Amino acid sequence: MEMDSDRLSAGWLWYGGALALGAVLYVVSGFYPAHLPVWMPWQFHWLEYLATVLVLGLFARGLKALPRDQHPPLWRKISFVAGVLSFYIVLQTGIDYYAQHMFFVHRWAHFVLHHAGAFAIAMGMSGPVLFAGLPDFLKPIVRSRPVQAVLNVAQTPVMAPFLFVGLLYFWLIPQIHTVVMLDERLYTFMNWTMAINGVMFWSLVLDSRAKPPARMSHLMRGLMILVIELPQMVLGAILSLSSHDIYPVYNICGRVLDMTALNDQHYGGLIIWLPGTLTSFAAMIVVLVTMRLNEEKAEREREAREGAV
Fold first, then answer.
1. Rounded to 5 degrees, what angle do the CA atoms 108, 113, 119 make?
2. Are 64 and 134 in contact (CB under 8 A)?
3. Of 97, 110, 118, which is closest to residue 268 (Cα–Cα)?
4. For residue 45, how many C-alpha atoms fall within 13 Å in the half-sphere facing its CB?
C-alpha cells in the first residue's frame, strides 16, 4: 500500500512539474518570442505540449505496469520516444515559424508528421505499453465498439491508402492551402490530421506480427505501399518541375529566407518526391523482413509440434 502511494505521488509530481514547465514556456514565448532560440516554442500551444507529456507519461506508466518480459526491445522504446519527440520539435519549436513562411520547410514538417516521425512511432510497437499505462476507467472506452468500428473502417486495405494519399493531396489543393495557412485553427487541425493518419497507416503496415492477430497479411501491406508510392511521386514531380508559383500564400505570409517562390516550391516538391519514396522503400524492406521472420517462427513451431508427437 505504501509503495502504491509512493508511485501515485511520483506520478502527480511528474505531471505537476510538466504543467509548471508548460506554464513557463507559455509565458516566455508570449513575452519574448523574438529572443528565444530556435529549439524553444515561438508560439506555445498547450494542446501539442500536453499531448506530448501525456503520451510519454502513459508510456512510462505502462512500462512500470508491465512485467519486464512484456516490454518491447530497447531499440523499439527508443524509436517510439524519438518519433513522439520529432512531432514536438516540428510543432512546438521555432521550426513551426519557418514552416508557416516557407513552403519547403512546411513540407519537411509534414514529412516528419506523416512519414518519418509516424514511421518511428509505428516501429516502436508500443500500443500494448500505452494501453497498460491508461487509467482503468479509460480502457473500456478504447475497447468499445465505436472506437473499434472507426479503426476497422480506417484501417482497411482500401481506406488506409486512400486516406494516406487523400490527405496529402487535399491539404495541398492551392485554394484550400491558402485558407489553411492563414487560419491558425485550420492549420492546427491540418497538422493533427497528418500526424494521426501517419501513425495509423504506418502502424498498420509495419506491424511485426502475422495475420492474425495483425489486421493484414504481409502481401496486402506490400500492395498498400506500392499504391501510395506512385501518387506521391506524381505530386512531387508536378511541384518540383512546375514553371509557375502554385502557392502564392507564402508571398502573403512573407518568406523568411532569401529564396524565390519557384525555388521554394521546387524544393518542397522534391521533399514529397524523394524522401517520401525512400520511406516507402524502407517500409517495404521492413515488411519483407517481418514476413520472413514470421515464416521462420511458424516453421519452428510446426517442427516443435511434430517433434512432440
1. 110
2. no
3. 110
4. 20
Domain ranges in the chain are 74-126+135-308
Mean pLDDT of the chain: 89
Within 8 A by CB and 6+ apart from 226, the residues are 280
Q: Which three cell numbers stand for residue 129?
A: 505499453
Q: How does pLDDT run across 78-96, given as a tens digit for each residue?
A: 999 999 999 999 999 989 9
pTM reported for the whole predicted model: 0.90
Cα–Cα distance measured from residue 274 to residue 281, given in angstroms and rounded to the nearest whole number: 11
6 pLDDT band, cuts 50/70/90, is: low
Is residue 218 within 8 Å of 287, Cβ to Cβ?
yes
> Mind spelling out the 3-state secondary structure of 180-206?
HHCCHHHHHHHHHHHHHHHHHHHHHHC
CA–CA distance, 111 with 83 (Å, rounded to integer): 12
Which runs of consecutive H residues, i.e. helices, occur in 42-182?
A: 46-65, 74-92, 94-99, 103-111, 117-123, 127-133, 139-143, 145-154, 159-170, 174-181
Residue whose cell numbers read 519574448: 32
b/e map 211-225, b = 16+ CB within 10 Å: eeebbbebebbbebb
Instruction: Report the SS3 class of residue 242.
Output: coil
Q: How many other CB atoms sit within 10 Å of the CB of residue 130?
A: 16
The tens digit of pLDDT for each residue in 89-126 reads 999 998 999 999 999 999 999 999 999 999 999 999 99
